[in-house]
Amino acid sequence: MNETLAAWAPRALSILRIIAGLLIIQHGMGKLIGFPVFPAYANVQPFSLLGAAGFIELIGGALLILGLWTQAAAFILSGEMAVAYFMSHFPKDYHPLVNGGTLAALYCFTFLYLATAGPGPWSVDAAMKKA
Question: Which of these, 1, 26, 5, 38, lies nearest to 107 by C-alpha position?
């Protein structure tokens, strides 16, 4: 069984990257184009701090989905999530469960992992490396 799981590890990395990209891109879309509708993002101004976060999430999410410039995009997204956690959540309380920062912390370390592990085999980066 370990051999089977080990054989799927690179593919699982690609799946993690794609799913993380799909999850983060919706935050950028919600902030910048209003879809999906999320009341907290109703009045986000494009040139505000939240608007800048939306651009990072939209562009970074698209790059992750494609697996293009994965490590750079994931590193920037990881930093954005660290800033989001410490600016928005940490001042409320130390514990992520209490301060609502669980998702930001999980995103931060997921993106940090992708920044170090790379995109996996199902990516534009991997295809360009072969060419």
Answer: 26
SS3 content of the chain, % helix, strand, coil (to 5): 75, 0, 25
Q: How far apart are the first and last CA of the chain?
A: 33
Overall pTM surpassing 0.90 (yes/no): yes
pLDDT in tens, 16-61: 999 999 999 999 999 999 999 999 999 999 999 999 999 999 999 9
Instruction: Print burial letters for 43-66: b (CB count within 10 Å at least 16), e (below 16).
Output: ebeeeeebbebbebbbebbbbbbb
Cβ count near 127 (within 10 Å): 13
Give tens-digit pLDDT for 100-121: 999 999 999 999 999 999 999 9
Domain regions of the chain by residue span? 2-130
Token output for 94? 């130390």
Q: Are 58 and 23 in contact (CB under 8 A)?
A: no
Q: Which residues, 6 or more positions from 56, have their beta carbon under 8 angstroms from its beta carbon?
A: 28, 76, 77, 80
Close Cβ partners of 115 (under 8 Å, ≥ 6 residues apart): 71, 72, 74, 75, 78
